[in-house]
Amino acid sequence: MSKNLKLEHPRDQITRIISRIYKRGMTTTSGGNISIIDDNGDIWVTPSAIDKGSLRASDIICVKKDGSIVGKHKPSSEFPFHKAIYEARPDIKSVIHAHPPALVSFSIVRNIPNTNIISQAKHICGPIGYAKYELPGSDKLGEVIADEFKKGYKAVIMENHGTVLGGSDLTDAFERFEMLEFCARTILYGSQIGTPNYLTDEDINSFEKQAAHMLPEMETTEHFPDEVEKRLQICNIVKRSCEQGLMISSYGTVSMRYKDNDFLITPTDVSRWDMSLEDIVQIKGGKREKAKIPSRATWIHEEIYKNNPNVNSIIMTQSPYLMAFGITKSYLNVRTIPESWIFLQDIPSVKYGTHFKFNNNSEIVENCTTALIIENDSVIITGDKLLQTFDYLEVAEFSAKSIVMGASLGEMVPINDEQVEELRKKFLT
User: Fold this and answer.
1) Cα–Cα dist 169/93, whole Å
2) 423 φ, ψ (degrees, to nearest 5)
3) In 137-290, which residue ranges form alpha helices assigned H by DSSP?
4) Class II aldolase/adducin N-terminal domain: from which residue to which, for each copy (predicted)?
């Protein structure tokens, strides 16, 4: 959410996020609830039995600290466990409960997603709790959930029910929610085509250590009209990526070259859903725009631009179907349909750690392909115009999705060599 989130009324925060969750297919018309506890101890919560696809700020209920209710509806039937969480954990200021399909899949087989599937997830989600089944809306359900939060968890799988997550504010809770569902989806999709591989804690710690490098600051920054226009393009593509499920609020980097080897890039620690022009960071002459922190992957983008003059835009993200191949070390054969092969030709993968700054990264930088998968980390897409690069990302994700979905039907039959040669002659020469 925006940097001025705390200046936004709890009603507006809640309606914005519940709409986002609903449109992304992570809850139903009747399911899910969100709350925020304010500095007065009053709890703002979604109403009971009101369409989650069309909630307005005026629909949000306030349950005052003294128990009185302000609003035109009844508070969510699950309000008791929201209240129990706040009483158990004063550091929790917002709670999200929903029934996203992948996490429900884990809840009905009595399992917890292993967030070591990618490098950032463990840090964002933390350890995951597990609450035994109790009657929805009951005080007993509130007790078992609160007991899990008392153990220090901020994310809990609810047996045969869904998930509940807390955060220091609604942004924090939503990032945790999105990331946990992403992990669950990636594990499920990966299991359709192979066996998911998980990172060790040592792998994750190595990532955190190598990512600490920071470029020096430039003294002044100039913003010419074409540079501002590119900032707008980046913001639009980032938001579109989030809406399409190709990026989540806590991960995804987009950059554009704007002059020689200077470029613009998205920042770190800013929600991708509501990124603004002011958030974008200019990188010029190896220095960063003053008082801004660019993506931790900035050095990769910098090296790609230096070594590949035809590349003018880069998207680095974690989309669930592409990452299904990244976590299983499965080869993604893009000879699915003509468009996929014409655009991508091949999607190689590199081992986890290849993207660490201190390692030999020639596979990523010098042999720069249109799309490349870094195992258990991300996918890198490069191109000329940013919209073209985004199109490549969509095509790659669709190709991966088709293969994952087709796995239950039988073995993939790719376009053959003769057909590929025909495509090459017509479209690439």
Assistant:
1) 5
2) -65, -40
3) 139-150, 170-193, 201-210, 225-243
4) 12-188, 232-404
Instruction: Report the CATH superfamily, name and number, of domain 5-193.
Output: Class II aldolase/adducin N-terminal domain (3.40.225.10)
Alpha helices for 332-379 (secondary structure H): 338-344, 362-365
Q: CA dist 251 to 93, 242, 343, Å? A: 23, 10, 25
Strand partners, 167: 94
Q: What angle (nearest 5°) sits at the alpha carbon of residue 347, between those of residues 343 and 348? A: 150
Residue 277 exposed, middle or buried by CB count within 10 Å (0-12, 13-18, 19+) = middle
Handedness of CA 277, 317, 26, 334 (dihedral sign): positive
- Six-digit token pair at 145? 């959930």
CB 5 within 8 A of CB 169: yes
Instruction: Specify the pairing of strand 349-350 against strand 371-374.
Output: parallel
CATH 3.40.225.10 placement within the chain: 5-193, 214-427
Q: How far apart are CA 351 and CA 359, in angstroms?
A: 11
What is the chain's alpha carbon radius of gyration, rounded to the nearest angstrom?
23
- Strands in 371-374's sheet, in edge-to-edge order, are 287-288, 281-284, 262-265, 253-259, 313-317, 378-383, 371-374, 349-350
Whether the pLDDT of residue 281 is over 60: the answer is: yes
Residues 6+ apart with CB under 8 A from 277: 228, 231, 232, 235
Q: Choose among 198, 162, 196: nearest CA to 177.
A: 162
Rounded Cα gap, residues 28 and 33, in angstroms = 11
Q: What is the pLDDT of residues 63-107, one digit of tens each?
A: 999 999 999 999 999 999 999 999 999 999 999 999 999 999 999
CA–CA separation, 230 and 61 (whole Å): 41
What are the tokens at 252?
């995804």
Which residues partner with 44 through β-bridges? 36, 62
CA quadruple 261, 264, 270, 276: dihedral, nearest 10: 180
Token pair, residue 288, equals 């960063």
Task: Give the pairing of strands 43-45 and 61-63.
Answer: antiparallel
> pLDDT grade, residue 356 (50/70/90)?
confident
| Amino acid type, 62 | C
Q: Which CATH superfamily is domain 214-427 in?
A: Class II aldolase/adducin N-terminal domain (3.40.225.10)
Smallest CA-to-CA distance from 334 within 376, 392, 408, 378 is with 392
The answer to whether the predicted template modeling score (pTM) of the entire model surpasses 0.85 is yes
Tokens matching residue 179: 């990331």
Sign of the C-alpha dihedral, residues 60, 162, 175, 312?
Answer: negative
Q: How far is CA 222 from CA 110, 259, 260, 276, in A?
A: 55, 12, 15, 17
